[in-house]
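Residues determine shape. We examine one folded chain.
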Amino acid sequence: MNRKNIAIALIAAVASLSAVAGNAAENGNNYPEIASQGQALTRAAVLADLAQARANGLIPHGDADYPAYVASGPGKTRADVKSELAQARAQGLLAENDVDYPIVASQGQSVSRADVKQDLARARAAGQLNEFQGS
């Protein structure tokens, strides 16, 4: 009984291997097509491209300058940055310390303390406050 099971398993394995091998031979061993890249570059052409990239500052020379910095446009002058800083200080957009961070710009008009006190006095007089709202 045991020999019979081993023989069946062996026959099944051989049959499956031959089917796979036949399929691979029909499909060219299933290797992907290699895209044609045109004419191959010569060593001199590759070295010339490398020299050009180095001249343009596109080749990093270590971890400190990776990724290579590529300027994205005209920068600001020192005077422009100083004027923007002065404007931000005048508008109160700079944090004084960690407690002030993040800066929340005022939204809409604010109500004065006197107006709030008058509203509270009116609400008390009208009986609109319950014992849990204000004192």
User: Anything to note?
Assistant: Helices lie at 2-26, 43-55, 78-90, 113-125. The chain has a mean pLDDT of 76. Residues 2-26 form the longest helix (25 residues). The chain is about 45% helix and 0% strand.
